[in-house]
Structures are given as C-alpha cells and as structure tokens.
Design brief:
The chain has 18 helices and 16 strands. The protein is α+β, with helices and mostly antiparallel strands.
Length: 457
C-alpha cells in the first residue's frame, strides 16, 4: 500500500478560495505600492550563503534554511569540523547556498550589483516568498510571503512619514480598523543602553527587550541577566516596561532619561520630526504610537523601527514591520547608501481578515455563469455565447460533459456559481438562452445582447 503523501511542517496547500483571498490582499498592497511610486523587482529564491549569514544576528542565522551542495557533497566536507562535532564549520563546507530569510538583504545585494543601472533614490517593492526554520504555530510558518517596499539613497525622514501613511492607506483599503502602528528608534535604544551602563551589550539588550510582549517583564529581566547585563542596569530600565501616556508625555520621559546621551537625543529628534509630521497629516484609519520597548531583533536597523499590531481582541502578533538601515549596503561594499523600508505580513493579515470576516463576498467568486451541456450541438451553441461573454469581461464557462442535469446543477451550486444557462433545442431555434438565478430560482429567456447586459450588472 502506497504511503499517504504529506507536506513539510510549516508549509501549506492553498485552495482556489484561499488563493483568491490572498490575491485580493496582494492586489491592494501592490496598487498602493505603485500609487506611492514604488517599482517592482524580483530576486532568486535562494542566495549564496555568504550573502545571508551574519546579517540577522545569531538567532536569525539559526533559522536560515541551508541547501546541500549538489552531487557528492561529503567529498568537500571539512573532516576536522565533522570529527569535532563543529556543525557550523561542517555546514559551511557542504552547503554554499541558502533559501532567502527575508527580502531586505537580497535587495541590498541587488542594489550593490546593479548600482550603475539604478537612479537614486531608488523605490522598489517586492512580493515573494521567504523561508525560516521557525517553530510552526498560528500565524508563523516556515514558508510565507513578504510584501516589502524600500527606499535607498535618501536619508530624509520624510520617507518614514511616507511609509506610515502607506501602512494607513493599505489597511484602510482592507477595511481593517483599529490597527496600531508602533514606532521607536534604534538610536534611542542605543542611548538607553549607554545611560544604564550596558552599551557593550546593546544587541543582547535589544533582543531581550523585543520579547516583552511574548515573555513579559520578568522574562525579559531574566534573559538580560543571563546575557550578562548587570542587575543595576536592569533596574534602571525597568520603568520603561510600564511607560504610559500619550506620545508627547512618553517623549518627555525619554528626554529626561537621555539628556546626557548624544546618540539617544538624536534618535528622539528623529522621532519628534516623524510624530509631528503625522500630527499635521492625520491618518485615516491607523493610530501611530511610540513604543519605547519596541526593538525588532534584526541587527541592520539603525534608525526608526516600525511594527504594526492587529486590532485589539484579535489573537495575532505583528502584521507588519520595518525600519531604517543606513549602512546595510556597506556589508556588500557600497558605503554611504541610506535605506528604509517596511513589510506587510500577508499570511497574518489574511488570518486577521478571516477572523473579522472582512473579505468581500465577491472575492471568492470565480465563475459568474455556467452553461449546461446537453450534447455537442448545444455545447457549441453555448460556447459561442461563452466566448462573447468572456470578451465582455464576464467569467463564464461550459460544463465539459453531457451529464445529467441534476449533476451539472449540483456542480454549479457547490462552486457557488450564481447563474446557469440552459440552452437546448428550443432555445437554439429561437436564438435565446434561458438564464437561471441559482439563489432565487428565477428564469429569464434572453438573447445574447440581453444576456450580456444582465450578467454585467
């Protein structure tokens, strides 16, 4: 007996209805990207390992899917690494490529390789799958799509303002109300680490801080202590865990805390510019909130950082995020190119819209009218009408087999096709078609022109 097939954990098959709903989200995101002046590019699904490794921190590196070299990969294996159990060294000798972890690092590589063909500032968007060897759970998959928009070649803070407005525009189009766009600045975090005496532990500090909403204050303090951050430093930063009030009052608390840190003060000035600009350009749907503990655990962020939270009451993590990465292209040899970008979490947005029942009913509709098949002559008569209707933009099809009428009607019903056309000998003689509304049962005899007008309503 053949073994039942399966798919890897963290991956999914998508039904026609699910693909239609995903395309609905993608099309809205794509249209807004282009409205805001972003141009599409695509990059390979896998990159050279050296392109990806070392760009996401230790935790990110562990989640990168490595690809074994083709052929007899063990022939080039590092024997010393194998004998000593050095998995990192062994992996480097038998795997030279890896599936992309995100779209930002490949984009930086693209910019460096194509710098002579690009007009700066360069605004690109990319909608492609990425892979992470993460533990599968609700809203977290090993294969998923990212929808990214980035600008490189400009250090203007107006770009941050534009991205916040882009988030707001997309979620408004999706009718997703109550979205919270959280903002912080890595310079502010660097300044906090400096004033509490943990400057040399900045990465450990930010990685732990970013987990506040997952493991709570006690969990963050425990992880910081395990990473070697002193108890005195942890006590100094603790008040930030429960910081309340509006954006202005939070800014004032930070001003007091960071008054002796030039880096921290610069970060606050950048935040102040963005917050005031958004106050003057009010958002339609989303709310912009300063979140002092927002850190985002990626090493390449250098300025503003964003994270988008689903509406309250929805059991979902972030549905978008991003930030500024002023020196990312420098790791590939192109210095002095500032960049900033954001990403939409397609899969999580899908789950949120599904939970809140926000998908329009028309999204899942594939065919609007099905012509029943009563034989070859009748089928040919119907196909002529199908061709004419398709030319008018009506989604129409012919049932392929001369099956019992009950079977054909059941097929239309199961696929939620709203109309069927019956065209037998009498209809052919009169040059008409009998249109049946599957919901009401109403039937009308119409000529082709009338049929087209009725179905185009």
């Amino acid at each position: 007996m053949a073994k039942r097939p399966g798919i890897p954990k963290g991956t999914r098959d998508f039904s026609p209805e699910e693909v239609s709903k995903r395309n609905y989200i993608i099309n809205i995101i794509r249209s807004r990207f282009e409205l805001f002046g972003f141009m599409p590019i695509e990059t390979p699904s896998f990159e050279n390992s050296e392109t990806l490794l070392g760009k996401y921190g230790d935790e990110g590196d562990r989640l990168i899917f490595r690809i074994l070299n083709s052929g007899d990969f063990l022939r080039k294996a590092d024997e010393a690494a194998y004998s000593s159990g050095d998995s990192t060294g062994l992996a480097a000798s038998i795997s030279e490529k890896a599936l992309r972890y995100d779209l930002t690092v490949p984009f930086a590589r693209y910019v460096v390789m194509h710098q002579n063909e690009i007009d700066f500032p360069f605004k690109r968007y990319q909608i492609q799958p990425v892979w992470r060897a993460d533990r599968p759970q609700k809203g977290r998959f090993r294969e998923f799509y990212q929808c990214d928009a980035d600008v490189v070649g400009s250090d203007s803070l107006w770009q941050e303002v534009e991205f916040i407005r882009l988030y707001d525009a997309v979620f408004s189009d999706l009718n997703l109300e109550g979205v919270s766009i959280q903002i912080n600045n890595r310079k502010v975090l660097a300044g906090i680490a400096e004033v509490i005496g943990a400057k040399d532990r900045l990465i450990d500090f930010t990685v732990a801080l970013d987990k506040l909403d997952k493991i709570g204050a006690e969990g963050v303090k425990k992880e910081m202590a395990e990473k070697g951050i002193s108890q005195e430093a942890i006590e100094k930063v603790q008040p930030l865990f429960t910081l309340t009030g509006d954006n202005e009052s939070r800014m004032q608390v930070l001003r007091d805390l960071l008054r002796d840190s030039a880096t921290g003060t610069q970060g606050l000035d950048e935040l102040d510019f963005v917050l005031k600009a958004i106050d003057s350009l009010p958002l339609s749907n989303a709310a912009l909130k300063l979140n002092v503990t927002l850190a985002r655990g990626l090493n390449y962020y250098t300025g503003a950082i964003f994270e988008v939270s689903a509406p309250e009451g929805v059991s979902m993590g972030s549905i978008g995020g991003g930030g500024r990465y002023d020196d990312l292209t420098g790791i590939f040899g192109l210095k002095g190119v500032s960049g900033v970008g954001i990403s939409f979490g397609l899969d999580r947005i899908y789950l949120v819209l599904e939970e809140l029942d926000l998908f329009p009913a028309s999204v899942a509709q594939t065919t609007k009218v099905l012509f029943l098949n009563f034989g070859d002559k009748e089928a040919l008569y119907g196909m002529k009408a199908v061709a004419a209707l398709r030319a008018e933009g009506v989604k129409a099809e012919l049932y392929p087999d001369d099956a019992k009428m009950k079977k054909q009607m059941s097929y239309a019903d199961k696929r939620n096709i709203p109309f069927v056309v019956l065209a037998g000998t009498k209809e052919m003689e009169d040059g008409v078609y009998t249109l049946k509304n599957m919901k009401t049962g109403e039937q009308q005899q119409l000529n082709l022109s009338e049929l087209s007008s009725r179905l185009n309503l």
